[in-house]
Amino acid sequence: MKHNNSSNMPANSLPAPCLVDNGIVINKSDMLRLLRGLRQVRYIHKQDTEITNTGEGCVMEAFADTAQATLVANRSLYLNVHSFDYLEMVTTGAETSFVLVQDSRCLCLTPITPTAEEMSVHPLDAAALEAIVTEALSASWDASLDDDRHFL
Questions:
Q1: Around 136, how many Cα atoms within 13 Å sit in the side-chain half-sphere?
Q2: Which residues are paired to 100 by β-bridges?
Q3: Residues 57-85: pLDDT tens digits?
Q4: 82: which DSSP letter?
Q5: Gap between the terminal Cα atoms of the chain
Q6: CB 115: neighbour CB atoms within 10 A?
Q7: Can you give the residue ranges of every domain in the chain?
Q8: Span 41-60, mean pLDDT?
């Protein structure tokens, strides 16, 4: 039986990889997708087998630029996938960590799940915040139009 290949994939090519919770990611765009989903993280920086830094911070940006550095300072992380050879997903228990590896250096990022208390303090996500700002701007424009009508 002959199958109709509806994709543009040549008959002799392999399917794209599928990694679930564990595996090595070498494609820079795949690395970016994983890193852009991170917010608050615990990080461990190792050189050879020695831990040089640890801490917690917020992933401010994940990007791909051969001319810029990965920066970790003041609880802020700016992650450049070109600073690393690959990303390894490692699952231990219920959490998956992302280990960025370059030669004998690695930066291990473990997402921090906000507690229920933290979520109740900051329950707004980006879409909700955008809706509030849009509504406020719209109300401001309506009010200014109403004020302008009194002068006509």
A1: 6
A2: 87, 107
A3: 999 999 999 999 999 999 999 999 999 99
A4: G
A5: 78
A6: 9
A7: 23-113, 117-149
A8: 95
